[in-house]
Design brief:
The protein is α/β, with parallel strands linked by helices. It is elongated, with a radius of gyration of 30 Å. The longest helix has 19 residues. Strands 7-4-6-5-9-8 form a six-stranded mixed sheet, with no helix packed on it. A six-stranded mixed sheet has the order 16-13-17-21-20-18, with helices on both faces. It contains eight helices and 26 strands. It binds adenosine monophosphate and magnesium ion. The site of adenosine monophosphate has 18 residues, from loops.
Length: 423
């Protein structure tokens, strides 16, 4: 087995990488370079392939469409029969329906009634739509000005037999299921689902059903993580709450690294707690502790424990969601064998002014919706404290105030990432 590249080696190739002040883009880059995709293929029926990662190219076994056919209801004609500068009378000799072809050849001066999807009758190359044709018994008159080849779909024009219809690494979406069905493909090779272990750390955490002692809080991070990971389509391994003890953390990390491809924890990486987490991690694998230039967020641990990738997220409930979205989500998609699709920001007008310090990326929870003039506007959802889940729950987007950006005035355009469907 060849020695794996270490995180330290990867980070050393990124110029000016300061673990105490890592811009968001830099952290994403380091993670992207470090994470490796799994390759473990299983075959599933196409319906079950939704949300899975295609493991091999799917080569089309047929031409789609399988025949030249009509794109419209009308009459199939021979373009060479049509007069360029006068209307053309033709004799109709039959009808072709979708699924029922016209048997026989079409000669000079003849036309065949065709329905959408009908195989083009032999000899015809053009379809004239029914709306412009004057029909009278078994004769029609085609007006001048028709284009040769119009309203005809060519065999193999959507997909040619032998060509890759879908490429390996594709995250399969509903349109792809339809595409696969159109090829008559019943099963596809997909990567096995990623297994992700997750747990919360903190002596102050109580689980639902337990009494809330003084100074304690209910563990909410495991629930937001459960939701976000479920939406990613991974297999979950919920390891509960891990107390702030060396032994407990070490045991949890060992178990997780044996059973999962990736481990996500929350809490225990802030300045006050990092020392003890760091000791545990040093004995288990290679984990770096970074301070990300972002808000909410800041502290984060990332690395490898055994064969599993490890993401140590901050404890604050909103910070967990934001760091998951920007660091963990794409990494897990990549690890699943797919290329993450870029998250597309919208441009919206900020309703209010926002203070922003250049030198870090800030994410503000907001509702983005059309304003009175129809243009999108972004309205912040109350307190932006990194523990305030309510403002996250009310929001439908994160306004991104970029690393170099300064204060925003009311009415300024800002980038906003709608997160419905993302998390
Ligand atoms: P930590 O990063 O462990 O220092 O935690 C930062 C803050 O987030 C503290 O106020 C914790 O109580 C809170 N916190 C940590 N983990 C959780 C959790 N799983 N659910 C809710 N709050 C948490
Ligand atoms: Mg803690």
């Amino acid at each position: 087995m060849t020695a794996r590249t270490t995180l330290a080696e990867i980070v050393s190739c990124l110029s000016d990488f300061d673990p105490k002040a890592v811009p968001v883009a830099r952290a994403r880059e380091a993670i992207e370079r470090f994470v490796e995709p799994i390759d473990c293929v299983e075959r599933v029926a196409i319906r079950a392939a939704l949300g899975r990662v295609l493991a091999r190219d799917v080569v089309s076994p047929i031409d789609v469409p399988a025949h030249d056919n009509s794109a419209m209801d009308g009459w199939a004609v021979r373009s060479q029969d049509l007069s360029a500068d006068a209307d053309t009378p033709l004799a109709t000799i039959g009808t072709a329906y979708a699924g029922v072809a016209f048997d026989g050849a079409v000669g000079p001066g003849q036309a065949v009634r065709v329905m959408t999807g009908a195989v083009m009758p032999n000899g015809c190359d053009t379809v004239v739509i029914q709306e412009v044709v004057r029909a009278d018994g078994d004769r029609i008159v085609v007006p001048r000005g028709q284009q040769a080849g119009q309203n005809r779909r060519l065999r193999g024009e959507d997909l040619a037999r032998g060509r890759a219809a879908l490429h390996a690494g594709r995250l399969i979406r509903p349109a792809d299921l339809g595409l696969l069905a159109s090829l008559g493909v019943a099963e596809v090779p997909v990567q096995r689902r990623l297994r992700v272990a997750f747990f919360s750390t903190g002596d102050e955490l109580r689980s639902i059903g337990e009494p809330l002692d003084a100074g304690c809080v209910y563990d909410s991070n495991r629930y937001t993580l459960h939701g976000m990971l479920t939406r990613l389509g991974v297999e979950l391994l919920d390891m509960g709450v891990v107390p702030d003890s060396r032994e407990a953390l070490e045991a949890a990390m060992r178990t997780a690294s044996l059973h999962a491809d990736a481990i996500v924890s929350s809490g225990g990486v802030s300045v006050g707690e990092a020392d003890f987490t760091r000791e545990v991690m040093d004995s288990l694998g290679e984990v770096a502790f970074w301070t990300i230039a972002m808000r909410p967020g800041r502290p984060m641990a990332f690395g490898r424990v055994g064969d599993a990738w490890y993401f140590g997220l901050p404890g604050n409930p909103v910070a967990v969601m934001v760091t998951f979205l920007f660091f963990v989500r794409d990494a897990l998609i990549r690890q699943s064998g797919a290329s993450p699709r870029p998250v597309l920001p919208l441009r919206a007008r900020s309703v209010a002014r926002m203070r922003k310090r250049p030198g870090r990326t800030e994410y503000q929870r907001a509702i983005v919706e059309p304003g009175p003039d129809g243009a999108l506007q972004a309205r912040i959802t109350g307190s932006q404290g990194s523990g305030v889940l309510r403002s996250m729950s009310e929001a439908n987007a994160l306004v991104v105030l970029h690393h170099e950006q300064g204060d925003v005035a009311a009415g300024d355009w800002v980038d906003a990432i709608p997160f419905d469907g993302l998390m």
